[in-house]
Amino acid sequence: MHTYSLKELCDCIQEVMANDLSDRYWVRAEIASMSVRGHCYMEFVEKADDGILSAKVRATCWSNMYSMLSAYFAQETGESLHVGLQVLVEVSVEFHSVYGLSLNIWNIDPTYTIGDLAKQRQATINQLKLDGVMELQQALVLPSLVRRVAVVSSSEAAGYGDFCDQLKNNRFGFNFHVQLYPAVMQGDTASRSIINALSAIADQEEEWDVVVIIRGGGASTDLSCFDDYELASHCAQFPLPIIAGIGHTRDVSVVDMVVHRSVKTPTAAAEWLIDRVAVQVERVGEMQLRLQRAVEIKITRERSRMLVVEQRMINAIRHMVLREEGKLNVWRKTIDLHSPERIFKMGYSLTMSRGKVVRSNKDVHEGDVVETYLQDGMIQSVVE
Predict the structure, then answer these.
(1) Can you list the alpha helix ranges (DSSP code H) found in 143-189?
(2) Core-most of 19, 99, 108, 158, by most CB within 10 Å?
(3) What is the distance between the alpha carbons of residues 232 and 261, in angstroms, rounded to a whole number?
(4) pLDDT at 209
């Protein structure tokens, strides 16, 4: 039996592969790890339907080739190459006695990845529909005046600064209270980081009117996290209305589909909030004007009614005074008819004795002094 040294065996393998696997091959695989240090070093894997690893191999894309292929891939897919992507790459096979089997990447087919991403995205949408959460955000009602804004973004993102500047320098002079809940907005950890930021906001739910997710300021790629099922589901079921200003125009992400409102850029998100407050303030102003006019009309009507009532009271008092004056005149005439002066003028007299009116001769006695009153004086006499 012929024996080989390890080096000899590796050299045989290398020779066989050089002779029999000298061509380039198109290979489907998932990117399991990726590191860019000028050259791009990847690890490709394939998994069975049950998720168990069935194949794994190292791959290298040299710097010049990587610069060209990564730009091409991003332009066609709207995504940068990252861990978890399914790719179709053209490779050549190499075997090294020390480093073992590896692949050199020469080309990539973006259409394959686009198809796979579309499948994953549709699967996420279907699951959200099955969960019954796609429309939950739409049912939430924004406060009439949105002033307290929680922002999920990177503190270093230019889009966050643009958003804050737009709100602060708005043409109406509205004051907004804005607080940043920092998160990683792209890459493998973005989805979990954004969820953690949203959870922190949910713990202070009563302090905020609305949540704004801002991604602007980064590359136009790395949007796959916004198609992630876990993040989209979390956004869909969030207790506060969410405004998404993810900052892309190529496609609508799943997060865009489930949030309360989706706009293209951070500044557009700020403008939307400003315009909403402006509309509400205008409505309040219109209501105040209508109320003021209604009050003025009411006051005018009440004044008119009071004038009518006042005139009626004056007329009633006049009629009452005239009626009472008529009664007084009647009494005055009655009194005048029965006054002593008038009786005296008619030739009558009044006889009194000891302070009492003498009506009969039986009212006086001999020796009584009687006084007889006439129109022009009094006569005093003694009864005999």
Answers:
(1) 158-168
(2) 108
(3) 14
(4) 95
